[in-house]
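Lab notebook, bench 4. Still working through the backlog of constructs that have no structural model yet. Next entry is a single chain of 717 residues. Request: give me the structure tokens for it.
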Amino acid sequence: MPAAAEDVDLPDSLIELSGRYGVATGYTDWTGRPVTVAPATLTAVLDALGVPAATEEDRTAALTAHDRAHWARSLPPVIVGRSRVATTFWVHVTHGDPARLWLRLEDGSVRTGLRQLENNTAPFDLDGRLIGEASFELPADLPVGYHRLYLQVGSSDVSTTVIVAPASLEAPRLGSGRAWGLATQLYSVRSRNSWGVGDLTDLTDLAVWSAARHGAGFVLVNPLHAAAPAAPMEPSPYLPTSRRFVNPMYLRVAAVAEFAFVRHRGRIRKAQAAVQMRADRSEQIDRDRAWKTKREALEIIYQVELSAGREIAYQAFLDREGRSLDDFATWCALAERDGNDWHRWPEALRHPRSEEVAAFVEENPAAVDFHRWLQWLVDDQLGAAQSAAVQAGMELGLMGDLAVGVDPDGADAWALQDVLALGVTAGAPPDEFNQLGQDWSQPPWRPDRLAEAAYEPFRALVAAILRHTGGVRIDHIIGLFRLWWIPRGVLPTEGTYVRYDHEAMIGIVALEAQRAGAVVVGEDLGTVEPWVRDYLHDRGLFGTSILWFEMDRDGSGGPLPAERWRENCLSAVTTHDLPPTRGYLAGEHVRLRDELGLLTRPADEELAGDRAQQQAWMSELRRVGLLDEGDTDVDAVVLALHRYLGRTPSRLLALSLADAVGEVRTQNQPGTTDEYPNWRIPLGGSDGQQVLLESIFTDPRAAALCEAMRAAVKPPA
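Model written out:
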């Protein structure tokens, strides 16, 4: 466990150096206990930021280098401001020289005459040249967007990116009303025409049914991020090979336009029937078999010549996606030949800009282009799904889910390795529900390198997920403020927080969402600094409330009364990291953690605490008239809990599809990988039998819960 505050005496130089790089030397844990971070942790995290800090001499040199780098820079690496607010920035020139500035806006127009402010900072001696600092102000009337600031230095110019984000994100599609939606793990939702896993046509049908029959405003779907193309395919949608691109496993083969021109289509249909039959008999989702069969069919379709119009559309897609798509497709082709872990490839192939990688692309054009083509198909089917959802009456349509990070051995880690931190992984400190902490194994962004790149990789990521959605849920949005970094080889408890420029990160999210007309939901559960939720609210981003976690910690200690829940919020009874509500009521979350050795106190104590909490909720449901005295019927309780959401002011409400069909089993148990079949549970009913999509459409339990949600957001006049 981390050392208590009084147990560690940190050197002043280590505290100063850590502060400059945003590395926390102390924090407050989930119990309210102050913790001082161990020196070894700080040294390892600073090393991952490229800052030697093991000795006093190292730290002195690093502090000096930090000062010199700051004063040697003429302009900040990026300037971030808000619309309707003047933004101050500094400029460094030779002391006494004038600073000539102008701004080129995104639309090509030019602004001059930026106002200079008083700055009495003393000049800095940089190798015998005095560097002066001046302060200027960007005007408050700048349009939102990505602009360019120029400074004349001698006979040449230097420049930097200016990002102007909306002061507060509006939600035009939602207006002033409320909406409800289904939350689903798409891979688990099969129809009769799937290929062993749920696909984008299934998602389309689910959206159209819930909108047309029950007035749903959105479908919140698990991250559709790309997985590695070669077996074994990572089952977790939250540990993708790329967040920038989509898993082609979700393609519906028959929906590809060129499928109609394939000879012997009957063979493809037989392959589809065989993989479906195997899925019918299996207790777990077999992604590898499903993808192998589907990939073989797609390889056949790839040989069909595109029509003239389709060829133009494909080339336009390639032009828009550019180098990012080329890198991803190249990694996929290499992974199919050399394996999914790029660290084990020949050294010459371990960086995307190497001559050997370029030679591979030149020698294997079809292998690389196949993966570009797959992404085009996915983009096309996602666009069709969103269009169908909106046409069916949804206010938002699809709501995507953005994972925290990526597989350290995968495509994004290879392509973006220059802006990721090596030697550490992202995770979470211990909290009430994960008392041993979590190590997600994912390499975090380096804050300094992101700024140097003007946040372009992050901008592209956010824009991509909003391309065909009306909203996005950002998993662990607190990671855009500070993220728990764990040095490689140590326990999750031995990490520390590293701060990010949340003005830049949240500002970019708001800017891209405004351009897409989308809402943003931040998953802000767990250990959260109190001011963060207020900040997100002020910026127009929604938070997340899960009923079981909404307790009155400042009052009775019981359930937080519905009227005190947040308004700008997505509220639900459960989440994918807990069992569905039927399972939760049965104590499945305690039983499973005990079985897997994840509890830090005896199971009897944990169960007693859980029963007390559940009884408090039953009392609350009876108090507000949603549950009759003595009624313990599980279906009645589940229905009452969801109706309770309607008593809150929350503008977005979610119903888990697993709850709608009466599922008991959890999809994911945090803190485990293969100890439990995470993300491999096919959707089932209360009897444990698999449920196909077509049967959901006529399921009375699902209809009753959906109608309760409709009534919650759109009560009769």
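Notes after review: The longest helix spans residues 308-338. Residues 1-6 have pLDDT under 50 and may be disordered. Flag for follow-up if needed.
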